[in-house]
Specification:
Blueprint: E1 5-13, E2 16-21, E3 24-30, H1 32-42, E4 47-51, H2 52-57, H3 63-72, E5 77-80, H4 86-95, E6 99-102, H5 104-108, H6 111-120, E7 125-135, E8 141-148, E9 153-158, H7 159-169, E10 173-178, H8 190-199, E11 204-207, H9 213-221, E12 227-230, H10 232-235, H11 241-250
Parallel strand pairs: 1-4, 1-12, 4-5, 5-6, 6-7, 7-10, 10-11, 11-12
Antiparallel strand pairs: 1-2, 2-3, 7-8, 8-9
Pathway: Amino-acid biosynthesis; L-histidine biosynthesis; L-histidine from 5-phospho-alpha-D-ribose 1-diphosphate: step 5/9
Catalytic activity: 5-[(5-phospho-1-deoxy-D-ribulos-1-ylimino)methylamino]-1-(5-phospho-beta-D-ribosyl)imidazole-4-carboxamide + L-glutamine = D-erythro-1-(imidazol-4-yl)glycerol 3-phosphate + 5-amino-1-(5-phospho-beta-D-ribosyl)imidazole-4-carboxamide + L-glutamate + H(+)
GO biological process, one term: L-histidine biosynthetic process
């Protein structure tokens, strides 16, 4: 059985690490490279950087901070945000990223996933998938809709259908962020993660909502996630990665202990 991964997420805005709540209201929390080094030493399995400046302002990702991260960390890290072409994949990988994530550009032109996978391999291609639930009149969730541009624009696309298409095209894994859960610390959207895990045959990283260690255990056991993205609970010192992993190990979750 593959080990479950704990993956800190670091949002980058204007070359500074920030934390959002529901993709809005950023608060500066430090330097991207220094935070990456700290979490690496704490026992993170991977890191994910989300360049929200590039996504929202239609800018190219700045490579300088990525190069600094590559110099500071010795675990795999992904960069998501502002990726629009195969050349963007090339530039980010050359700067030191191990994987490159694409969200809005893949929705607009799905062939980008296949083009990147054909050149660099599926293991380098990550689909960023931002989701919002759609409710019926009884306030029951009937499906989830894909959003783009850092959660600001709805697409009308069904999350499961898009995830399946992306996997067929060449995405090697999916980071699924539940926008309504992001930064709220009340737990992941376990129902959505479970659905994706059952319907898509590539790894699913659960994102958005972790506030307690129990939330991570739940998304692994009930949601069948392959990895859990954590942010607020470690950025603000509520837990260390070591504490998270020790707890999960005590619950018989297969994690890499440090």
């Amino acid at each position: 059985m593959l080990r479950k991964r704990i993956v800190p997420a670091i949002d980058v805005l204007n070359d500074q690490a920030v934390k959002y709540i529901q993709f809005r209201n950023p608060t500066i929390i430090g330097d991207p490279a220094e935070l990456g080094k700290k979490y690496t030493e704490d026992g993170a399995d991977e890191l994910i950087y989300l360049d929200t400046t590039a996504s929202l302002k239609n800018q190219d990702v700045k490579l300088e901070w990525i190069q600094r991260v590559a110099e500071q960390v010795n675990i795999p890290f992904s960069v998501i945000g502002g990726v629009r072409t195969v050349d963007d994949f090339k530039n980010l990988l050359r700067a030191g990223a191990d994987k490159v994530g694409v969200n809005s550009a893949a929705v607009m032109r799905p062939e980008l996933l296949k083009e990147a996978a054909d050149i660099y391999g599926k293991q380098c291609v990550v689909l960023g998938l931002d989701a919002m639930p759609i409710y019926n009149d009884d306030q029951e969730i009937i499906r989830w809709e894909v959003y783009t541009h850092s959660g600001h624009e709805k697409t009308g696309m069904d999350v499961v259908e898009w995830a399946q298409q992306a996997a067929d095209l060449g995405a090697g894994e999916i980071i699924c962020t539940s926008i309504h859960k992001d930064g709220m610390k009340n737990g992941y959207d376990v129902a959505l993660i479970k659905l994706l895990s059952e319907k898509v045959n590539i790894p699913i990283i659960a994102s958005g909502g972790a506030g307690k260690i129990e939330h991570i255990e739940e998304v692994f056991s009930d949601g069948k996630a392959d990895a859990a993205l954590v942010a607020s609970m470690i950025h603000y010192g509520d837990y260390t990665i070591g504490e998270i992993k020790s707890y999960l190990h005590s619950k018989n979750v297969n994690v890499r202990l440090t």
